[in-house]
Write a structure and sequence with these properties.
The complex is a heterodimer of chains A (about 240) and B (about 240). Helices cover about 75% and strands about 0% of the residues of chain A. Chain B has eleven helices and no strands. The chains are: A mainly alpha (about 240), B mainly alpha (about 240).
């Protein structure tokens, strides 16, 4: 639900480039942090856990259209922040290749899903010191998804996707007087504000249902896996 | 997601696009996306969309099924478009057209190209660890998908999934994914043992050499030039 499902051609190319650069830097940092890990174990682990993440996304939830699990927090808990971020990038790359999100927003999308992975790992690490793992997973998933959705809305705001830009593009040729231009700039700012608030108002109620569902399911998975393979969650911590 | 179906279409088609190299088809897709980025004219975007649908028909691909794969993108584009309505409906319409057309252009490439060829190109730009993990993800997806289907079937037989019981469904789904997760971890342990036996040191994703250019590459390349010229003149 927190994917940036904004199509190609809407976001200013500068922001797309920034998204790719920041993602590239985090990937470089991740590869550096993972340099001492056994590649024979790491590659299958990242690959197969990413496949589970993709499968989680392919199961439609029985609560309405467009809902699916992300399992990004779970991936963060299992793989840790560095391998988890690489996993998020791989999943986004495959999703984009399948037309499930824009190719040009892979960088920004990886940052959003990657933030879920990284914060999921960190929050779970803190909460699981005081609480049972299923409760920790529930709280972690809810907060992390709320955070990443805010991040996504923030990106929409920062990248200034607004109809005013489009309208300006078409009306610019007919614009001759300075007064008219300044009036238009004011109305653009107004439109931009309105559209972002409206966007948030539409997204948040939908997203809230998604946060609750994902939190519950992640908690159930963690509870199940914790009973069968209790050492799995603490692999990164050792 | 229909990765299985996409893979089937890519492996079993015999159109001129299937015979073209992955490089020329990726150039085609990138050109269409560049045209989409550059154009803000709904009429041009609608023309581009119709053209891609027609191309699918010519390639003897299941047009409606492939169009249906753009469902998720379309849903979120509609949500985004609704939030952007401010008098004129042109901008929301443009957003939706851009979303579907871009997704369709990528799907045309994916449904006519073997994933080995696509990964062969990606592996040249990606670090070894990521390229190999990408390959592993793709292969294990199908193994785990089969397992997921069997698990869902088993739970359905035991009435663990029923349309009216949302919480029971979520509990069952959590358990299914939990089992799948344990199996996935076991699978990754087995795979790492196999890699160790084979002396793997990274660089699994060498795949095959890129296919050389042939007469079949003219079509995607000419269409790429046409898309870019089209957006320059009409977009």
């Amino acid at each position: 639900m927190s994917h940036l499902h904004i199509p190609d051609g809407i976001i200013n190319p500068i922001w797309l480039l920034i998204g790719f650069i920041v993602t590239g830097l985090i990937i470089c940092l991740s590869l550096f942090m993972l340099r001492k890990r056994d590649i024979q174990k790491l590659v299958p682990r990242i690959g197969i856990i990413s496949a589970v993440m993709l499968l989680g996304m392919s199961v439609p939830l029985p609560v309405g259209i467009g809902y699916h699990l992300n399992l990004s927090v779970l991936v963060g808990i299992i793989l840790g922040p560095w391998a988890g971020f690489i996993s998020a990038f791989i999943v986004n790359l495959i999703l984009a290749l399948m037309g499930h999100g824009g190719v040009t927003v892979i960088g920004l999308n990886s940052l959003i899903i990657g933030s879920e992975v990284i914060f999921g790992f960190l929050f779970f690490k803190v909460f699981s010191r005081f609480l049972r793992i299923n409760i920790s997973a529930l709280i972690t998933t809810f907060f992390v998804l709320a955070l990443s959705t805010s991040f996504m809305i923030g990106i929409v705001g920062i990248t200034q996707i607004n109809p005013a830009k489009f309208l300006h593009h078409h009306e610019h040729n007919h614009q001759t007087q300075l007064e008219e231009h300044s009036h238009q700039v004011e109305s653009q700012e107004e439109l931009s504000e309105i559209s972002l608030v409206r966007f948030a108002k539409i997204i948040i109620p939908f997203a809230f249902i998604g946060w609750v569902i994902e939190s519950l399911v992640t908690s159930i998975i963690i509870s199940f896996v914790g009973r069968v393979k209790p050492d799995l969650f603490y692999e990164e911590k050792r | 997601m229909d990765l299985y179906f996409i893979d089937y279409l890519a492996s079993n088609g015999h159109s001129f696009f299937h015979k073209a190299s992955a490089v020329s088809k990726m150039i085609f897709s990138m050109s269409i996306i560049i045209a989409i980025i550059m154009s803000n004219r709904p009429s041009f975007l609608a023309f581009l969309l119709l053209f891609l649908l027609l191309l699918l028909k010519v390639l003897k691909q299941p047009v409606l099924k492939i169009l249906a794969m753009t469902f998720y993108v379309a849903v979120f584009a509609i949500i985004f478009a609704v939030s952007q309505i401010s008098g004129s409906f042109l901008w929301p319409l443009t957003i939706i057209l851009k979303a579907i057309t871009a997704a369709l252009s990528v799907l045309i490439v994916l449904t006519t190209t073997n994933y080995f060829d696509i990964f062969a190109i990606l592996a040249r730009f990606l670090p070894k660890l990521i390229a190999d993990s990408l390959f592993m993800t793709y292969r294990s997806f199908f193994i785990l998908l089969k397992e997921l289907k069997n698990l869902i079937m088993a739970v359905k037989v035991k009435r663990g999934l029923s349309p009216r019981k949302i919480f029971t469904n979520l509990k069952s789904l959590g358990d299914i994914l939990g089992v799948l997760f344990i199996h996935a971890v076991d699978l990754s342990s087995r795979s790492s043992e196999i890699l160790a036996i084979r002396g793997y040191k990274g660089g699994m994703a060498k795949y095959r050499n890129l296919r050389r250019f042939s007469k079949y590459d003219f079509a995607p390349l000419i269409l790429s030039v046409a898309a870019l010229l089209g957006v320059g003149i009409f977009g």
